[in-house]
Amino acid sequence: MDVKPVTHVLFDMDGLLLNTEDLYTKLFQKIVSKYGKEYTFDVKLKIMGTQAIESATMVIRELDLPMTPEEFLQECKKGENIFADCQLLPGARRLVEHLHQHKIPIALATSSGEESYHCKVDKHHTEFFSLFPYKTFGSSDPSVKNGKPHPDIFLVTAMKFPDKPVPEKCLVFEDAVNGVKAAVAAGMQVVMVPDPRIDKSLTTEATLVLSSLEEFKPELFGLPPFKD
Ligand SMILES: O=c1[nH]cc([C@@H]2O[C@H](COP(=O)(O)O)[C@@H](O)[C@H]2O)c(=O)[nH]1
């Protein structure tokens, strides 16, 4: 594990900061059940981290659904209140507040669109996400030409920092294989906190693999250590 010091930190959102992946599974299963299909983890694995229209296109193709991506996204929109009471994942608050207190530049880089972000954040997490001065919403940001696993979203987000860090100085936190691939393609180091169902062989591109953000030691990447 070849670890280099970093100065800027970029966070994925779904499945990394927020426990929305189980909710996505419930939402997608509800939609595909109408066609007698099962939203398996194998299918989910391919879709996690991709942008809305790509997610819809892939699930339709994988499960052979008789609908257009637009129709699928309309169905998702009808069920989006499922995200309203989502929770922060263990370790997320402590890590983000710690970096904020130590004035480490941080940003949010989620493939979700801005509208989807608000469904997840507005009820309980506005104050927490106000700690991120820079945010990129892949599904609704035209400057993100290609979604994860392409590097665009992380390169676009890094350019939002006034001091324009080089990719090597950026550390990405991700849960999805597509997100890790995007970070590596962007030339950034990446800490992966994968769903336990993800096969170990799919985590080898990450700089470091943790089972929870609670395990993270900032000093490993030259960041200020936790006091406690
Ligand atoms: O079961 C699913 N998980 C995740 C996604 C997609 O993964 C992205 C999660 O964004 P991120 O991990 O970059 O925060 C969202 O765009 C969402 O559409 C999905 O479609 N289905």
TrEMBL record:
Its EC number is 3.1.3.96. Keywords: Hydrolase, Magnesium, Metal-binding. GO terms for molecular function: metal ion binding; pseudouridine 5'-phosphatase activity. Its cofactor is Mg(2+). The keyword Transmembrane helix does not apply. SUPFAM superfamilies: HAD-like (SSF56784). It comes from the Eukaryota. The keyword rRNA-binding does not apply. It catalyses: psi-UMP + H2O = pseudouridine + phosphate. Belongs to the HAD-like hydrolase superfamily. CbbY/CbbZ/Gph/YieH family. This is pseudouridine 5'-phosphatase. It comes from Pieris macdunnoughi.
